[in-house]
Amino acid sequence: MNERTASLFLILCMVILFGLFELENKWDQDQEEEAQVRESEQKLLADQRRKGTEAEAEKFQVLIKHDGSPETNTATIILDAGSSFDPNKMDDLKYNWSQIAGSPVELKPGENSAKVTFKARPGDYAFEIEIFDSYGSAVKDTKMVKIIPEPNDPPVLETKISVQ
Fold first, then answer.
1. At 145, phi and psi to the nearest 5?
2. Which CATH architecture has domain 59-148?
């Protein structure tokens, strides 16, 4: 093997070795990025679970009372924003209720009242209240209601046998 071939072989080995180092660095970077993505996904999933648990806990839960009548399957709910106020004291407030989830219900006396009522069957419902002052400033809130069906235990059967 002559000197030129040996030099070319040495240069080729150095290029291959340099390429392997670069490949290893790229591999390490990819592994680090994947770990960061997994960590972000886990944090996001944990946050979503926490928010779901908090949302369930924030629901106002109503149990339809057992009254002996199977026809009773609704509850009357009152949503009241009447304690709301404007710190400027002179501004009139306007209210706007809207249902954002659940089977449709009728808000009485109407969605522009501070206090509304509705009758609903068991299920989950969500309502948004938006309050405006005379200057157009607004604030929103969401209220969730969970109506639980009327409980009913099965009858207790007692059978007696006797002799005459």
1. -130, 135
2. Sandwich (2.60)
